[in-house]
Design brief:
The complex is a heterodimer of chains A (291) and B (386). Chain A is mainly α. Chain A contains eleven helices and two strands. Chain A starts with a helix and ends in a 13-residue tail after the last helix. Chain B has 14 helices and 16 strands. The chains are: A mainly alpha (291), B alpha/beta (386).
Chain lengths: 291, 386
Amino acid sequence: MSMNVILAQTVVNGLMVGMIYVLMAIGFTMVFGIMRIVNFAHGEFYMVGAFLFAILYGSNEMQFAVSVFLAVGATALLGLVMEWVVFRRFRGNELNGMIASVGVALIIQNSALLMWGSSARTVPPVVSGVLSVGGIVFPWSRLVVIIGAIIAVVSLNLLVGRTRIGRAMRAVAQDAEIAQVQGIRVDVIFPAAFALGVSLAAFAGVLMAPVLSVSPFIGLAPTLKAFVIVVIGGLGSVPGAVVGGLLIGLIESFAGTFVSASLSEILQFLVVIAVVLLRPQGLLGRKEREA
Amino acid sequence: MKRSELIAVLAALVTCSGAAWAEDSVTIGVHASFSGAGAAFAEGMLAATEFAAEDVNKEGGLEVAGKRYKILFKQYDDRYRAADAVTAMDRLMIQDGIRFVVGPMGSAAAVATKDQTTSGKVITMTLAFTPRALGADAPFAYRPVITTGEFSDPQVAWLMKSTSAKQVVSLLPNDETGQQIGVANFNSYAKAGTKLQVEYFERERVDFVPILTRILMKADGLELGGNSPTTAGLILKQARELGYRGPVFVTGGDVSAEMLKVAGKDAAEGTYVHLPIDTGLPDTAAYVTRFKAKYGQNMNGFSPFFYAGLQMLFTAMKKAGTVDDTTVIAKTLDGLSDVPTTMGKAGWTGEQKYGIKHQIDLPFYVGQIKDGVVTKVATCDVNACK
């Protein structure tokens, strides 16, 4: 394998992983941006989405599109319930909301453990085989992940930028009180934004289920990654989550390929520390206005 | 019936039931990682304890010095973390007063809790592969499973002879377990004339493609022994996705069932695995069937070893005539040999290697996955595989 091929392979690997991180981080940062809640249960919605997809598509052999729709839809419903039961009490209350989210994460994880057991499940590949171009190998299963993630990010961008509810979400994110004065129903926007955020996590889980495996414990790692990414990109910034996700994916890929796996973890946190020290609001985040 | 007669009848009933069912009990603690990537191992350990308790209790309890003891068990989750392992062991020993433990499961947990269990004279049956889990400084620690230290040399020698691999790469978690196995594997491969390159990763990692892209460039063999079943399956699946077609060896632990589920039949085809049990033995086969019937899933291969370990512990209790004095029980346990267990006749070995004879002595096997089924291809002892 020539150096050029390895370099290209490394970039592709980094983009594949980075796109999943982007999906995770966008949902995470949206919930923070609008509700001011650091949702550490975010990864558990990823796990629930993946599990539901595994049951529908893997065990019950339902159609792929139907399985995706039902898995994401059911997770969004779970998100609505969680928002109504737990998170609505902590809107704008960052510290208590964060602590509550850790509790919700533990409840969801252990409920999954009770319902579905600890054993890992596999999901049959949606597509199999590899696409080989000039010595670079693209597993089709991972290409599907990239394509799916791009579709999700573009759709979200259109939803937030071009629709009435998207504009309302942006208004609430900027100032919930002013938005309410303008006639925006914030009591509808908050749960809608939360459900949308967890839907993105569930969709990431659905995409990754056939590539990796599904167990009640798969939610923690994506949550930590999402947190790292939004700190780099800027809490509440969707473009920041995209940049941060791709950056972390590429760092992981390059460090893992050319140096060592352990160094890739160190490098990620060095980047986080550098960002926090030099640009506390994140790469694309805005400074909080002081009262 | 007069009131006094009624009381007499009730008292007689209570006495009779007391005679038929012992009031006294012995509680076995199961100290393992029930959450996290190693949960399949923990469930195997718990199942062994549950079966052992069920079997003894079915016979009316464990008869020791003329008294019958009901076997109870209680599980503790160490979440695969050394700090949590210490806390769980404290709860087990201090809060619940337990003196017999199936566990600790991981090497980090075994090392972290060794001083506690030694000073508390708690008999442990560990799954930890680290050589530091056993030793003269841990007279109450036993290992009822066969580890890399026992099977690595003969197994690797046989595999290298069978496949002619010359440059093998290994991926292992960057913790006590992984590092100990890495060193043991490196030495075993060196003895077999093969160079082993060991790459470490953080245990939470699930995407191995970047590492595999680099390490598989020059390798003609991939060693996955020492990983949890899920992780071994993920690495195998991702290596095959990257187009790797060389031989894969899993020389540590029994990961076959879970690994097959995660990697899939096609990716796992031809993989050589360490096979701790021979399902050709009737008692072992019956145990496997019992596990599947009760839990509805394939058994982790370590499970019957713990059942065998408990059979030896119960034998020692009976011979020692006590369920309280762990020093006497341990001394009796040390002297046991040719004890009939579900895995065949078992004894203890390891004096030369660990400075104490607390390592179970049983044969082991090399298997190969063919069409989704593990087939025995060699039978081994600590000297050689044939």
